[in-house]
Amino acid sequence: MSHTFVIFGASGDLTSRKLIPALYLLSKKGRLPEGTRIVGMSRTEFSHDSWRAGLKKTTEEFTGKKFEEESWSKFAAGIYYHPGDLTKLEDLQGLKALLEEVEGGPAERVYYLSTAPRLYTAAIDQLGESGLANQEEGARRIVLEKPFGYDLSTAEKLNKDVNRVFPEKQVYRIDHYLGKETVQNLLVMRFANSIFEPLWNRNYIDHVQITVAEEVVVGRRGGYYDQAGVLRDMFQNHLLQLLMVTAMESPVRFDADMVRDEKVKVLQSIRPMSSDEIARETLRGQYEGYRQEEGVPADSQTETFAALRLWVDNWRWNGVPFYLRSGKGMSCRTTQIVIQYSQPPHTLFDQKAHMDSCRLVMQIQPAEGLQMQIQTKVPDEGMMTRTTPLDFRFCKEFQGEMPDAYQRLLLDALQGDASLFARSDEVELAWGIIDPIIQTWRSAQAPKLHLYEPGFWGPDQSNDWMAEHGRQWFDVCPVLH
Ligand SMILES: NC(=O)c1ccc[n+]([C@@H]2O[C@H](COP(=O)([O-])OP(=O)(O)OC[C@H]3O[C@@H](n4cnc5c(N)ncnc54)[C@H](OP(=O)(O)O)[C@@H]3O)[C@@H](O)[C@H]2O)c1
């Protein structure tokens, strides 16, 4: 059966910057199912040709040296555009007529909602109303971009709205972190090597740190950001996804539901916190100058930095804290998961200074790879030891450039593999963890909002907080280049 990729929000930024370049590169590599068509819709008036011409320019810009005239022409021949408003039934009926004309028979379709989230429900309703969600002529899948709701109740409503029209197995909630090679490699490393898994538990691991640091400040996104804050923007999705992949058990097979069942069990194991515990186990900060950003109120209490200590109460992780932190205006852009192993039980070698214990750093961006930090002997210095890195970098080890996460995820959506997409229960459980923290932070029991200077690692109090736990943040900008 042939395939059609339908983009709502065809004139938008995500379409030109990510979706079309990813689809083009997949086509160039011969990975797109043969004869896949791309059909775009938004209100801006384009003809098929003028949309193609605009996309050619932006794709050339975003794919750089990988762009080739010949492969583009082949790809562009399958691109079509339909101007219309996705909240209007007659416009979707017009789109349906175009789809049937270009498909000329049964086809599988992916509908990608690359529009503002406030339009999701209207778009889904009209897809249902117009018959475009009818599964009888071939699978009809829908891809939703984050945010999946604003809190638990809006997420539940969105899930109900989408499941009224699309069965859950046809709903693909995208989190581009899961499309990254290092994140998938974490599963390969854990479950395709027998040396890591026996050590991946409370007996050997002291704690886990997950950091998503952004060097940038909010800039022109102030209006949006001030309503969201760092917990909604980063924790509910990316950080909890990374935690799930780090902590999950091995699924029986690499099958969408089996993988997601194991991820869901991790969220179910996270210890709920009372307001008093939230005040102790979380830290909030705001960078100096945030209140002067465009669209941000002068008395804003919105957090641009957060750190949480979460406990995964199960046999594997009991007693091992998971430290999660994310912020804007940090020292550098890096996303990393640090597995901090415990100290050896007995110190054999005479140490002049404190001996670091073993550490595994998985770097998700900017460069992708991992670094094992182990103790080695310093030559000609008696039995002195030093922390020494063993590096694995994807770009060094494998030929060719690293694919953007969207390539993997869009191809999976076309081929009907939802393993790397969030399921409705996962999204709701994640909100169930984040919502109570946001509520406490907005109450009289809120911990103090610490101001911090941009360009470092968040508020100083975050270091003090770690020190009180006898630990310290791994503040290294990035370990791999
Ligand atoms: N940009 C990114 O890098 C990025 C990253 C992660 C997630 N996202 C998410 O992706 C989605 C799209 O983001 P974006 O940055 O691409 O937004 P954008 O540039 O504002 O694009 C929005 C698109 O929606 C279309 N649109 C608006 N109202 C419409 C209507 N009634 N009927 C049909 N089309 C309509 C707009 O086109 P017309 O005005 O021509 O109708 C435009 O093509 C959002 O949910 C965002 O949160 C974006």
Automatic annotation (TrEMBL):
Catalytic residues as annotated in Swiss-Prot or TrEMBL: 238
Biological-process GO terms, alphabetical: glucose metabolic process; pentose-phosphate shunt, oxidative branch
Protein name: Glucose-6-phosphate 1-dehydrogenase
GO molecular function: glucose-6-phosphate dehydrogenase activity; NADP binding
Organism: Bremerella alba
EC number(s) from the headed UniProt entry: 1.1.1.49
GO cellular component, one term: cytosol
Keyword NADP annotated: yes
Residues at which substrate binds: 176, 180, 214, 233, 328
Function: Catalyzes the oxidation of glucose 6-phosphate to 6-phosphogluconolactone.
Pathway: Carbohydrate degradation; pentose phosphate pathway; D-ribulose 5-phosphate from D-glucose 6-phosphate (oxidative stage): step 1/3
